[in-house]
Amino acid sequence: MLEPNEAAVLFPGQGCSVAGSRELVSLYCAELYEHARRALGSDPLARAEESTRFAQPAIFLASLAGWRAAQVAGFSPRAFAGHSLG
Length: 86
Hints:
By secondary structure, the chain is mainly alpha-helical. The chain contains 3 helices and 2 strands, in the order E-H-H-H-E.
């Protein structure tokens, strides 16, 4: 059990929004984004609302970028959890 003032990280699954994540992805996952874009033949962030094919890679990229940003900022959680892909 977490003590007061301790933090946990919850990674989302499909159904969450990746709107506004492009800047973080560009900063923290640029190479992985390019791999995903080439593999899918399209931008997964722009097409995430269309289907699971694009949503899952977009959510992964946004989650990973957010986590990397948190690490750089010195965030140190005690626990992690995730939904679906998260």
